[in-house]
Structure formats: C-alpha cells, structure tokens
Predict the 3D structure of the following.
Amino acid sequence: MKFHPQEKLAMNLALLRVGIDDTDSKEGMCTTYVGAVAIDRLKAQGIKLEGYPKLIRLNPNWKLKTRGNCSVAFEVRISEHQVPLVKDVVLGAVNELAELHHETTNPGVVFYQGQKIPAKLKAFSKKVVRGVATIEEAETMAREIGAEVHKFKLGRGIIGALAAIGNTLEHDWTFELIAYRIPKNWGTSRKIFAASVIEMNSKTTPNTFDNLDPSTGEIRITPHTPCPILYGIRGESAEIAIKAHRLVKALEPIERVVIYKTNQGTDEHLRRARIAEARPNWSVIVDGKVCREPRVIPGGHVIFQICDETGKIDCAAYEPTRRFRDVVKKLTVGDKVRAYGGIKEKPELPLTINLEKIAVLGLAPVLKKINPLCQRCGKRMESEGRGKGYSCKRCGIRLSAKAAKIVAVPREIEPGFFEVPPRARRHLAKPLIRAKPVEREY
Ligand code: ATP
C-alpha cells in the first residue's frame, strides 16, 4: 500500500489530547485563560492545535464549582519527541497561573494519546455533565484508558479535565470567542463601547446569541467577575463570532483572543425523567400537570408544584429570572407543562426544579359561575344568597340556583415555550433562539 507523504507524516505524529480544570477561584483567574496562554505558548514553539480548543461546561448543579463549572481541552499533532515539550508548557502554565494559594483550587491536568476517544471515556464525560463523579472514578478511568493525570493539591480538576477530553461535541455545539484583558486591568471595571455591542447584536443575531438582555438592554458579553475575560461572544460558528468580534469596540487593550468550540447552549445537561426518578444534582425535562397554584415566597421567588403518575415535585422561578416569573404566575392547576431545569442538593428542602425554561403544552379551562340575565329587562340578576337562586328586583322575576351560567375565563397565557432571560440563563441551557438557527450570509 502506498501512502502520500502527508499521510506518512501524520502516521508518525502523535495525537496528544490535553485537558485542564480547576485553576481559578472566586477572586480571579479562569481555566479558559490558562488554556489560552498554554495554546499561545505552544504556537510560539511552532505547535498548532488540531481543530478548535474545547470549552466544556460541566454539571451546573455541582456544589463545588467556582462559577460556571467549565473545563478546557485541546489536541495537538506532534512528533513523539515534542510530547515532553507540550507537557512542560501546559503544566508550566497551570503552575504559574492557577490560584494554587486558594484552598478550593485543586487543578488537574490530563494527557491522553489514544487515537480515538473510548466509549467509556465519552460515558464518563456525560456523567460529569449530567451527574456527579469522584476523583477516584477519574483516576480509575485514566488508568483504564492509559491517560496520564497530574494532580495539583487534591487534584479534583482531573475530573473535569478528563470530561473535557471525552466530550466529542458530536450532536450539537456552539462557539465562543473570548477576548482577554491585559493583567494590569484584571479586577477593574471593563471598558467597552456599549453602542458597538448593540450594533454587533443587530447585525449578527440570531447566529450570535445572549449578547444583550432583551428586556433590560443590559450587555451580557462582559462578565462581572474579576477574571481575565473582557468579553465572550457566543455563536453558531467561529466565522460569525469573528465577525461579531470585529464589530465590538473595546476601549482597553486586548491581550489575546481564543475561539473555543463548546457545549454551551446545547441542553447537554438535561435528561428526560419522570418525577419519581428525579435526583439532586440532575438537570431534567419533566412532563406534568400543575397540581398546586403558583405562589410568591419571600425574596420574590415563584413556586408551584407539578405531578405525574409517579409523584409530585416543586418548580421554582427564582427572583433573578425577573419577567419569566410573570409567565409562571399565570399557570393554574390542571395546566399541562414540560419543565426544564436543574435540581440542587438542598437536604432541608423538597426537591425543586430550578426552571430554565418551560413549555406550556395545554391549558386547563378556568370556569366561573355568573348570575343569569333577567329574561324581561336583560339586566344581570342578583343572588338571593348561597343556593337560594336569583331575582330581578325591578321585574320581580325569580330563578332557581340552577339558572347560574358557567363561563370560561379567558387565560392570560397561551401554549408555547417560555425561557428565563439571558442574565439568569445557565451556560448549558439552549436558548429558544437556537431551536431553529436561521441560516444567514455572513
Ligand atoms: P470557572 O468556570 O470559573 O473556570 P468552575 O466553576 O469551573 O470555575 P472549578 O474551579 O473548575 O469551577 O471547580 C469545579 C471542580 O469540580 C473541578 O475540580 C471539577 O473537576 C469538579 N467537577 C466539576 N463537575 C463535576 C461533577 N459533575 N462531579 C464531580 N466533580 C466535578
């Protein structure tokens, strides 16, 4: 068999997959930045990535996450003798940049040289997005597939690092272009020309999404944390993200830009479940009927209950979901809904779905009894008291209680999908605008 020189070259090259997680703390840093620095340092050594680096969001209900529960992975095709160099660069970046002094920062780095991602690693990755895994499970998995793990301190990050390598983004994916600030500016207020973001949004949406909050006009591409990110633009393709980035005017220096392929906005965290199957730490899609009216609790949160043939569960639209709560408040007992959302582990509280979106599938009729009209004068008759019938004082006509009319009260809500605003959206939650991305020239 004859091989093309390029193929021969590729055969002699090693495919090294790198996963990184748990490098930041609430006070600063971001795993995507550590990844970006490592990638740029490798490029400076002439080592280019295969495809896009991946930004993988993990279980949004996981209690030990710092913020958005993200991890990073990328792949390089290199000569065998370059493998130690890549490992040095990656481990060096983690060592230098991770918030190691912070108790809850426990970085993990994984290197994997397999040609294909084994099915069991894909399954592990799903588990970390949809459930919970332990450090021991990650170590066992790494041993079984022959991956090399590097634990800093507790090394919890190997869970996310392995999960990022194992997520092949096969069914759905999005892109995020991230522009980073120069270190001098970290922790200061971000300077960006707001009008340029509005223009960018109008020129690139719906192929970019969550740039602005439609109800408040608030800019959503800039985070509010002391991390190195100036802004992140999310979109359906790398091309649209680049176009959008060119439209945004930063009023401070940008240190570097990276485009990540991600599982953000894909609903990968959700699984279909019946109510009795729902578990803490899961994110679920549950069909049910409203069985307890929505009520507002202190703090402005709206809670109602749904049931199916297996049980009952609370659903919550929390205060930050703002106007979404007004939709939810219009539900009534008997309405058929499909609830989408996460279940946090709160031992003292009943299981509650923290709603990300809701589909109203069917509305229960709301009926009201009204007094009959007088057959002679056409005026509404008066009630004589409970069960005692009706009378028209003017005409002297009397009717029995059975004459009451039962009418349907118009509902203030219609069947359809409703979602929380971008400010309250989980990174993994698929925005409704992505349900049918519009193909556009850009
Ligand atoms: P940021 O998004 O700001 O980079 P973060 O929110 O990703 O930070 P980390 O600092 O990475 O949070 O901490 C999360 C830790 O929990 C990591 O060590 C990760 O490996 C681990 N982890 C993430 N998801 C799970 C899960 N489903 N089960 C067990 N461990 C998890």
